[in-house]
Amino acid sequence: xxxxxxxxxxxxGTVRPGGTLxxxxxxxxxxxxxxxxxxxxxxxxxxxFTASLALELAPVRVNLVAAGFVDTPLSARLLGDALDARxxxxxxxxxxxRVVVPEDVAALAVHIMTNTALTGATYDIDGGRQLVG
Length: 133
Known about the structure:
The chain has 133 residues and is an alpha/beta fold. It has one domain (2-132): 3-Layer(aba) Sandwich (Rossmann fold), CATH 3.40.50.720. The chain contains six helices and three strands, in the order H-E-H-E-H-H-H-E-H.
């Protein structure tokens, strides 16, 4: 969140009116569990932070994309040998029946940046994971 605040401070005078500041966050730490430290608190604070920035920076539009698991090289490095099992678990349990890929996140980002009626909102992209627990 500190990084998002610094980005917002620096872009306030450089993004054109009607332009977009798009923050990227996640959904993974929304459920509190051991060993996550402050991650759940930061994850929970980001939507309110985004909405507040949208009011403060208007007419610059501010939104947040909160991604769940996305099949990326970083995910592969973090999960190592467990990556294939995670992919299979998600394919079997997600309502969309597949794993979210970077192109899905990019398509959402483009939509948010080009739709000039959107500001102050959080857009979850997790394949429906929150719906199935």
